[in-house]
Structure formats: structure tokens, C-alpha cells
Design goal:
The protein is mainly beta and 423 residues long. 7% of the residues lie in helices and 32% in strands. Belongs to the carotenoid oxygenase family. Fe cation binds at residue 417. This is Carotenoid cleavage dioxygenase 7, chloroplastic.
């Protein structure tokens, strides 16, 4: 995902976010911990017609990563604002993980990558009904930074690469905190929230209550008591390699990509035909990026085509209509047809952004027969929507099947990765 310096400065800025209210601040004394309690709005709505400017872009970016201290333990039905959910829509749960707490109750902020994991669940239960619930992953870091009695958050080490202070054994050591905010996975009947630098946390799939950290590798490594064997993980099977880079310029590029758009990473297809003896007969090279030159991320296909030759691929991209946020956040779903190199798109409205798309198959033999679900962030309305698109109709005006609104007091910041768990 490409991000120019302006966008990185928004992520890493030291300017405090609007201070969030204390968790359950509007609750009565008898309110049980973890129940859904409305919080007062910390910001005022903004007009979608404001001119495109650096200030407007900055405000949009901040609001996209505003904290949500409120949890919804008891599932709530989402309200349909457009269209209707088909009666034959597959039953299941769409889980979405991402940061929920980015600015604490004392004005401190952390990078969104270090925000505490906030798991959201959208349950399609039939009859056109979708139930919503959300809870924080109770990691050790969350327990240390959230007061158990009051629900108040206080970051121990705010700023870029937020850290935790170590304990008695090494008081001078600071530790990276496992916030379990990156992705979510249903595996072997169990639900896990993952972070790229530590053990996954297991949660109860229905209540979203945290069970605790787990070491999956230890539980499967080695010989099983039943006599079967599991492949042992291996590392260092080749000689160590040292890679060097020719860096003739002393200029620091804040982006990990080349400033020259023509030199940006792009997709190239190489087809090699072999004879019976393994010798090559023909080789063709095609640059697939010539059909879509804008940044794209979060690719997804029909999961039933995993490991097979698939035709369609869907991804996030940008329309480029925002001069000051040209690459991210995303506002477009791109549909690639690899057979005839046709690209079709669906875009949100002005000053609205979208998260990772998810393909839900109808269970037929046709690869294109299914739905794309995606979260739409209406920044100027301070609301989030669950949008269902007909995968076949992407590119047409009637691509939206249904749009459902998350209650305003439960609107959440930008999510990272999700998972569809069919019933």
C-alpha cells in the first residue's frame, strides 16, 4: 500500500486526537461491565461538500482512526438503509479485526498499528437480519493499559511503536505490546485474533469473550499420540544470504516505494510451456498492470477457487478524486477479469472510504456467483455501514444489494483484516 509523506505524517503526528470519553461514562451505577452503553459524540459532523484541501484531508484521516471505547456484548440488529438482504443469502459470521483504542482518556495517542485489538462480528442469521457485536481482545497489554474498575485507558508509552514497561526482572527493558489487532481466523472450530509479532489470542466465537493467548505451534509440533505424524517446522534449510542495495543518493524516501510511478511494483504474468521432457517450448510475458495503474491492496477471490485456476479477482483501490489523499484511504472496489483483461469498478460517495473486501460464495459452480461485503466509513456522517455488493454487477449502477447501518454510538475506526465463517 503506497503512502506519501503527507499521509505518513498523519499516521505519526504528535497532535492529540480528540480525547475520548471514559468507557461507560454515561452508565448508571448498576450497569454491568462490558454492556453496550451509548457514549456522547466527541466530534461534530462535517459537510461532505467541503472543498478538497489539506485541512479537510487531515480531518478525514483523523476521524477514520478515531477511538471507540464502547463495546457491544449484547448483539444488536443492524438497520437497512438501502436495498434488502436476499432470502437465500448464506448464513454465517463476518469477523473484522482492527484497532479500536488509538487515543486514550488522557490525550495520548499511538500509531493505529499499535491500537488495541477490537473484534467486530456481523452475524447473518436469516430472514434478512444481521446482528452486530464488538469487544476488545483482552490481551495482557489491554489489561495493563485499561483500568478494570473504571474502564479508563492510559497508554504506558504513547507514540510511534508503542511499548510497555517491563516488570521486576528487567526494569530497564521495554517490550513491544501484543495488541492482537491485525487479523482474525476461524481454524479447527476455534477463533483467533492475530498479531504479526506474537502469539494469537483465542476468543469464544459467539460471545467474543477472550479465552487467552495460545501457542498453536507447540500444540501440533512433533508426534501425535494416535500414531500419526505432523510435519515439523524447519528453518535455515539453505545457506544464509546477505542482500545489499545500491543507495547512491543520501535522500531519505519516507515511502517504501519508488517515487517514480513507472518504477512502482506491478504484476507481470510469465507463461512457460514445456514439452514431455521438461524443455521449454514457448515463453510469453504480459504486463497485467497496464489495465489498472492505480494502487490496489487487499485482493480476494472466490474461496472455492483457492488453489485452482481462477478468472476473477477483487481488490481495494482508489478513484484518485481526492487530491490530498490520492492513494489511501481506499474508496473503490476493483474487479479484474484475467481472461479478457477487463477491469470494472464500484466507488463510494465523496469523503467515504472502504475497508478490505470479502467474497461470499453462493455455493454454485459459477465463480462469479456470489457477494462482496465491505465496510464503508462515512466520515462526514460519523457512521459505518456494512455494504453487500453483487459480484456479477460490479461496474453497474445497481451493484449494491443492501446497505446496513451500524448504530452511530458504535461506529468504529478503520479495520484491518476479516474472515467469513460460513454456518
Amino acid at each position: 500500500m503506497q503512502a506519501p509523506f503527507f499521509q505518513l505524517s498523519l499516521l505519526f503526528t504528535s497532535r492529540p486526537y480528540p480525547t475520548t470519553s471514559k468507557l461507560f461514562s454515561s452508565a448508571t451505577a448498576g450497569t454491568p461491565r462490558g454492556r453496550c452503553v451509548a457514549r456522547p459524540s466527541t466530534t461534530t459532523p462535517i459537510s461532505p461538500s467541503l472543498p478538497d484541501s489539506a485541512i479537510t484531508a487531515f480531518e478525514d484521516y483523523q476521524r477514520l482512526f478515531s477511538s471507540q471505547p464502547t463495546e457491544s456484548v449484547d448483539p444488536l440488529p443492524l438497520v437497512v438503509t438501502e436495498g434488502s438482504l436476499p432470502a437465500d443469502f448464506p448464513l454465517g459470521t463476518y469477523y473484522l479485526n482492527g484497532p479500536g483504542m488509538i487515543s486514550d482518556d488522557h490525550g495520548s495517542i499511538v500509531n493505529p498499528l499499535d491500537g488495541h485489538g477490537y473484534l467486530r462480528a456481523f452475524r447473518f442469521i436469516g430472514g434478512g437480519v444481521v446482528m452486530y457485536s464488538a469487544r476488545y481482545v483482552e490481551t495482557e497489554a489491554a489489561k495493563e493499559e485499561r483500568e478494570a474498575k473504571t474502564g479508563e485507558w492510559r497508554f504506558r508509552q504513547p507514540g510511534l511503536f508503542s511499548l510497555l514497561k517491563s516488570h521486576m526482572r528487567a526494569p530497564g527493558l521495554k517490550l513491544l505490546k501484543n495488541v492482537a489487532n491485525t487479523t482474525v481466523l476461524r481454524w479447527g472450530g476455534r477463533l483467533f485474533c492475530l498479531w504479526e509479532g506474537g502469539h494469537p489470542y483465542e476468543l469464544e466465537p459467539t460471545s467474543l469473550a477472550t479465552i487467552g493467548p495460545t501457542d498453536i505451534i507447540k500444540t501440533v509440533d512433533g508426534r501425535q499420540s494416535g500414531g500419526g505424524e505432523v510435519l515439523k517446522l524447519a528453518a535455515g534449510i539453505t545457506k544464509p544470504l546477505l542482500c545489499g542495495y545500491d543507495w547512491p543518493s543520501s535522500r531519505l524516501d519516507p515511502s517504501f516505494m519508488n517515487a517514480d510511478k513507472q518504477a512502482l511494483p506491478h504484476l507481470v504474468k510469465i507463461l512457460i510451456e514445456l514439452d514431455a521432457g521438461g524443455s521449454d517450448l514457448f515463453c510469453s510475458i504480459a504486463d497485467s498492470s497496464i489495465h489498472w495503474k492505480k494502487p490496489a491492496d487487499f485482493p480476494v477471490i472466490n474461496p472455492s477457487m483457492s488453489g485452482k485456476s481462477n478468472r476473477f479477482m477483487y481488490a481495494n483501490s482508489t478513484s484518485g478524486s481526492n487530491k490530498f489523499l490520492p492513494h489511501f484511504p481506499f474508496d473503490t472496489i476493483v474487479k479484474f477479469d484475467s481472461y479478457n483483461d477487463i477491469v470494472k469498478t464500484w466507488c463510494t460517495e465523496n469523503r467515504m472510504f472502504i475497508g478490505e473486501p470479502m467474497f461470499i460464495s453462493k455455493g454454485t459452480k459459477h465463480e462469479e456467483d456470489g457477494y462482496i461485503i465491505v465496510i464503508e466509513y462515512a466520515i462526514f456522517r460519523q457512521k459505518c455501514y456494512l455494504v453487500v455488493l453483487d459480484a456479477k454487477r460490479i461496474g453497474d449502477e445497481d451493484a449494491i444489494v443492501v446497505k446496513l447501518e451500524v448504530p452511530e454510538h458504535l461506529s468504529f475506526p478503520f479495520g484491518f483484516h476479516g474472515f467469513w465463517d460460513k454456518k
